[in-house]
Amino acid sequence: MLDYLIKGGTVVDGTGRPAIQADVGIRDGRTVAVGAIDEAATTTLDAAGLIVTPGFIDPHTHYDAQLFWDPTASPSNIHGVTTIIAGNCGFTLAPLRAQDADYTRRMMAKVEGMPLAALENGVAWGWETFAEYLGRLEGNVGVNAGFLVGHCAIRRYVMGTSSDGPATPEQIDAMVAELRKAIEAGGMGFSTTLSRTHNDGDGKPVASRSATREELLALCAEVGRHEGTTLEGIVDGCLDSFSDDEIDLLASMSATARRPINWNVLTVDSARPDQPGHQLSAADRAAELGGRIVALTMPVQVPMNMSFRTFCALNLLPDWGAILGLPVSERIEKLRDPETRRFMTERARSPEAGVFARLADWGNYVIGDTYSAANDGLKGRVVRDIAAEQGKEPFDALVDLVINDDLRTILWPIPPDGDPGSWALRKEVWDDPRSMLGGSDAGAHLDRMDGSPYTTRFLGDCLRGRQLETLERAVQMLTDEPAQLFGLKNRGRIAEGYFADIVVLDPETVGADHAELVNDLPGGTARLISAAKGIVRVLVNGVETVKENEATGVLPGAVLKAGRDTDTVLTG
């Protein structure tokens, strides 16, 4: 007898092959039959008119902390995600010495936008080793979760407060040893960052930014000694355009480990048509050395919630951080100064701004929530129109109104890359084997963005919107392709013997609502959440975790471990 039978659906199996009408039979957490099935089942779902796909795999999340207070990994779970990869960008919560817990919390609050109150109240800190960290999650997750081992954690664990400087050969050896222990405990590989945008709670560069090439390659060599491992890395060029040295470094890291390295995130804009090709060309250099570089890119535009009061992408504009990092009262006085405004606008449009220069179209912002009588009636309006009415330049109008709210005004920049040319260029990138869908950052930047619904938004667009990809190809990009990159055993497809990670969706309605700010985090803090539409069922290892767009609350997920749950991923 079957545990679960999905009857009469349109099965899109993840391979890219044409969809078929078929039943899907599940027993003991795995798919045991696909086709015409007459066997009885404990639970039967009538899927007539519905689409049945493998569970979606999100390759770039930061759920490392959230899983402790929210083991379902919401809202990714309700958008059909059944497997996540966390520990990206060099940031993990283990290994961890007790005296460094506060530093780590403040770093994660700053660099990944996790509210400090949530980290303090929602996580029962107390582990030290990576094995102990994974042990806290084992049996207590609603999705399948794999964790890379973060460079910053290893460096701080070995070097302590001196981790912002160069490492001695002995310290590098100690870091390699800690990485070995973490991978042997189940870590799926190694992640690092050299990006200038990554600073700790004190505003100083995070630990990995002080690493030498020799240190990085020593750690990558250790990764190559373990089966089923992978690499992830961030450099400055990920934001704009790789230098020759960055391309060589990423390629050498991959070739040294004999593992793929993925990076986040490739932006696509028809205003800069040559940028994607240049960044993707890094993969060609890796191939010459016997490695593989994969760019993650998003198939949707992710709205961003911004404010002059909280840390957000505006802080990453050249020289803006020093101004927006001042105490609020001093910040307001500085922003009143015409010379400061002139300086800020010049720096925002400078070559050093790179991809963040897109934020400098001040008239193209929509006003969100406001907090003063002076700004009554402005919510939902575009700054360009407000500025014209007031006879001001857009930036002056914008700054004046946020000062009225003591800088609390919520701002929504209108993405400049929604034109047909940008979407056509995106399709070219999606179909390039040097790229893969991903980059949601789910679990991070909680009050500023919500990238987790990219799966349902993309499928809705493919079925009823721009239709840039076929359904079969779209599903393959969300399932089998990331499974192949990470070497996940028996996941990413609907096939006999594969784990029953399955999504049943309504093609007429699948999608996501607009994001809303919800105060549901520990410590009374808020995050953006987009409700799912058209997700009839989600099964993780054969167990229903979502029913009619709502989580069931059960936790059948597995902590994925290198070697046990992954195959060796060789390149070349």
Topology (elements, then pairings):
Elements: E1 2-11, E2 20-27, E3 30-35, E4 41-46, E5 51-54, E6 56-58, H1 66-69, E7 81-86, H2 101-111, H3 116-122, H4 130-137, E8 144-147, E9 149-150, H5 151-159, H6 169-184, E10 189-193, H7 213-223, E11 230-234, H8 244-257, E12 260-264, H9 275-280, H10 282-289, E13 292-297, H11 320-324, H12 328-336, H13 338-348, E14 365-367, H14 383-390, H15 394-404, E15 411-413, H16 420-430, E16 435-437, H17 454-464, H18 471-478, H19 480-486, E17 502-505, E18 511-512, E19 516-521, E20 525-529, E21 532-533, E22 535-540, E23 543-547, E24 550-551, E25 559-560
Parallel strand pairs: 1-4, 1-5, 6-7, 7-8, 8-25, 9-10, 10-11, 11-12, 12-13, 13-16
Antiparallel strand pairs: 1-2, 2-3, 5-17, 14-15, 17-22, 18-21, 19-20, 22-23, 23-24
Summarize the structure in words:
By secondary structure, the chain is an alpha/beta fold. 31% of the residues lie in helices and 20% in strands. The chain contains 19 helices and 25 strands. The strands form six sheets. Strands 1, 2, 3, 4, 5, 17, 22, 23 and 24 form a nine-stranded mixed β-sheet that branches. It has a six-stranded parallel β-sheet with strand order 9-10-11-12-13-16, sandwiched between helices. Strands 6-7-8-25 form a four-stranded parallel β-sheet, with helices on one face. Helix 6 packs parallel to helix 7 and helix 14 crosses helix 15. The model has no long low-confidence stretch (mean pLDDT 96).
